[in-house]
Amino acid sequence: LPRSNQAEGGTGHHCCVPLCTAGGRFNKMLSFHSFPKDSELRAQWLIKIRRDGFTVTTRSRVCSRHFETGEIFVSSSGKRCLQPKAVPSLFHWNNFSKKTERPGVWERRPRPVDTVAMATIDYNTEDENDVSDMPITGCTESAPASIPLTEEHDYAASPLIVVDRIKYETMSREIEELRRQLESYHLTQGFGLQ
Question: Domain locations in the chain?
């Protein structure tokens, strides 16, 4: 077959990416792209496809499954081509999806602003996790103060979370109400009443 017909009706190419079994012989939907001539871009491709020591030849190809949709376009002649700086990024080992950028720990958590209020609280209580006995005095709605609470198992973040006093009071009341409901439920279950 002439080369132009092979490109239209399937090719003998296969993908050189590890764990990819794509071949162009019977799959007309895939396109196969040769490595770029630019040495820096070629090095990026080799890093991304994880083929250390791989020697790129003129027949080495990467299939279109490893590129995002926006990186492939159809030329005026109908040939599928890559954008100039396209780098393969979709692979078997990342489930053919790109990772979403996670915000850093400092962007994810609100940080304490009022360090003076935090410095006045005594942390030397018998039970550090029991916040129900913590006195709440001098609370006004116009100037909410902060109460630091410890949070366990988040070693990358600050050990304190600042909670608004009003929110703290509301949550404490809600917890107390839920405790009462649970107690009454246990009492009815214990006596067989419903």
Answer: 3-94, 105-191
